[in-house]
Write the structure tokens for this entry.
Amino acid sequence: MDLVSRIRDRYSSEGVSGIVSSSYRVLERRALQFYYNRTHTAKTDSSPYKLLLVDPHDIQYVSGVGLERRDTGRHLEYVQWPWYLRFAEYGDVIGGDWDVPRVKFTELSEWALINERFGKGIPWKETSVYEDLVARIEHGNNVYGCSTVEELHERFEYLSTLKESMASDGYRRTDTESSSGVGVGRDSAASLDEITVNIGRGGELLHHTNGRHRLALAKVLNIPKVPVLVMVRHEGWQRKRDRVRTGSETDHSHPDLADIRRSAEGTVSEAPNRK
């Protein structure tokens, strides 16, 4: 849909106030994006697209300060972030209190759906979130990429097939030729479709956004390890990486320190200047 059509639809449904409100949000987002890009330059020394193998049960919280229920969007609820996390890129290092655990992964509706269906054996239509998903679609919204109830049921069939595959073969990275239509490359975050986390100051793994259903399945099935991408590292955790690299600390037990252990077995390197 082109810009003129979107403006016309907004005017038809919400009038002038809707157009003004929408324009303000666009301008606000662009201003914040510009400010973030101009003021934030800290980057990790690690490859921004490096995959970590982690225990899914170690991802207990999500990055955010709360949950917001919305009438539109792909999800029934959205995690509220500090404004700067909205503009973060793979490999960014950010300080602040964004890593303080506040929202449990088990509070998400995706967890309720997967746990009730595959953990407790409850039929899809009897799960606690089914009616909400259907109501959202019937009001013209897209949920999990589905615009009709029939597509929602097809999504359920896909999740059932994925569950059976994970139960028999373990967790596998998505394939570029996957029948699910999700393309996965090897060289850039734009083409990687994996569970995504942020790392807190103490090494805590906090779910970011991507892969809610897959992480829930891995937890229910007790998959021992899953690959994850790291979006943001807390500056406190990055300082630990620097100390391990320079040899002032020798703890390499965290999955995010494995690359330092491999690359610096007998060599101590200086911490890079990331500013």
The chain has one domain: 39-263. DSSP finds seven helices and nine strands in the chain.
